């Protein structure tokens, strides 16, 4: 398949000199040192609004439960690259009007300097639109999509893995917005390689589950839990064994979001897409970038970010009734030496 070069997020952190305020007229590239682990953090209040004005001392980063010095910090409102990855299976064709009607909400929430791209997949990923700042091109591309009909392979895990590879690690902010049922007809053995790859990337992935009416009567409850409780929940098990159909898909989407510091949404009807897209766009515009020194043992390390307005003290413990929802990647793969 034909791909063009796709820019991705910065590698595990290259140092940025003097984080100055960005202006739309003078876009700059966010870069951080390669010997740091980059952690993009979004902090929202109870109403889903971005919490501005936090300082380096308000954050605590835990590496395998051990607090680490924050050696890099920058509040960032930088242009983003947003790759929309859209499933074009027969099932999605039957419900595609659900999300297409609200796609404008995502684009309206982005800034002129932000860029968008479109990749579709069923059996394999296909680039439909390379990154462009012309948002109308995305709408035109989505409206002219061809959906597969009849029975066929649905290779979600491999398609996402390929997209992660192609996005690479060029400087900048890049996010993937998945519009997908989350179903995969390939072997479940394809799942664990994807998990390991996601733990090694700086990409943030937002998963928007399609087929709300088909997912069962508890979809609305799953959506509430995902939006309000996921950041405080214990880590979900990586395994998808003994799960089938939408139960497996739901867990996969939630894990993909949790691993990368994004969010998973389970809209019930077409009207639910607009606030979801607005929240994704807002999150992409407003982030804090933290950096810590990595371990050098070649192992997977768990990350956790805590917020203590007014300054984190060594004795501080996070409240069980936090006023904030914190979204950040859940771990990284340490270099071997």
- Number of separate helices: 9
Series of secondary-structure elements, N-terminal to C-terminal? EEEEEHHHEEHHEHEHHEHEEEE
CATH level-4 homologous superfamily of the largest domain: von Willebrand factor, type A domain
Number of strands: 14
Instruction: Going across the biggest sheet, name each strand in turn.
Output: 7-6-5-8-9-10
Strand content: 15-25%
Based on the coordinates given, report the CATH architecture of the largest domain: 3-Layer(aba) Sandwich
Question: Which radius of gyration do the C-alpha atoms yield?
Answer: 19 Å
Enter the CATH topology name of the largest domain.
Rossmann fold
Query: What's the shape?
Result: globular
Helix content: 25-40%
Largest sheet: 6 strands, mixed
* Mean pLDDT figure: 77
CATH class of the largest domain: Alpha Beta
Q: Classify the secondary structure makeup into a structural class.
A: alpha/beta
Point out poorly predicted stretches.
1-30, 218-234
Secondary structure layout:
Elements: E1 37-44, E2 59-63, E3 66-68, E4 72-76, E5 80-87, H1 90-95, H2 97-100, H3 103-109, E6 115-121, E7 125-132, H4 135-143, H5 156-167, E8 173-180, H6 191-199, E9 204-209, H7 219-229, H8 245-260, E10 264-265, H9 273-285, E11 287-292, E12 300-307, E13 325-327, E14 331-333
Parallel strand pairs: 5-6, 5-8, 8-9, 9-10
Antiparallel strand pairs: 1-11, 1-13, 2-3, 2-12, 4-11, 6-7, 12-14
In short:
By secondary structure, this protein is α/β, with parallel strands linked by helices.
């Amino acid at each position: 398949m034909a791909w063009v070069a796709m820019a991705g997020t910065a590698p595990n952190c290259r140092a940025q000199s003097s984080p100055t305020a960005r202006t739309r007229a003078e876009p700059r590239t966010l870069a951080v040192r390669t010997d740091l682990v980059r952690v993009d953090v979004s902090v929202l209040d109870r109403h889903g609004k971005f919490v501005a004005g936090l300082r380096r001392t308000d954050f605590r980063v835990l590496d395998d439960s051990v607090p680490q010095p924050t050696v890099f910090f920058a509040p960032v409102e930088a242009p983003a690259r947003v790759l929309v990855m859209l499933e074009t299976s027969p099932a999605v064709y039957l419900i595609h009007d659900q999300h297409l009607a609200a796609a404008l909400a995502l684009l309206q929430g982005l800034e002129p300097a932000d860029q968008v791209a479109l990749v579709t997949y069923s059996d394999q990923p296909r680039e439909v639109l390379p990154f462009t700042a012309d948002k109308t091109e995305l709408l035109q591309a989505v409206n002219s999509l061809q959906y597969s009909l009849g029975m066929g392979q649905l290779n979600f895990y491999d398609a996402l893995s390929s997209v992660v590879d192609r996005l690479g690690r060029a400087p900048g902010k890049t996010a993937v917005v998945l519009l997908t049922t989350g179903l995969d007809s390939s072997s479940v053995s394809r799942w664990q390689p994807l998990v390991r790859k996601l733990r090694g990337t700086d990409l943030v992935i937002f998963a928007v589950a399609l087929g709300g009416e088909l997912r069962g009567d508890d979809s609305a409850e799953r959506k509430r839990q995902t939006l309000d409780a996921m950041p405080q929940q214990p880590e979900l098990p990586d395994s998808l064994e003994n799960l089938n159909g939408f139960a497996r898909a739901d867990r996969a989407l939630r894990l993909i979001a949790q691993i990368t510091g994004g969010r998973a949404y389970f809209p019930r009807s077409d009207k639910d897409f607009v606030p979801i897209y607005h929240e994704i766009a807002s999150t992409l515009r407003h982030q804090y970038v933290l950096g810590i020194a990595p371990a050098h043992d070649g192992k997977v390390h768990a990350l956790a970010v805590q917020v203590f307005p007014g300054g984190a003290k060594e004795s501080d413990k996070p409240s069980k009734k936090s006023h904030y929802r914190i979204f950040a990647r859940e771990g990284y793969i340490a270099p071997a030496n």
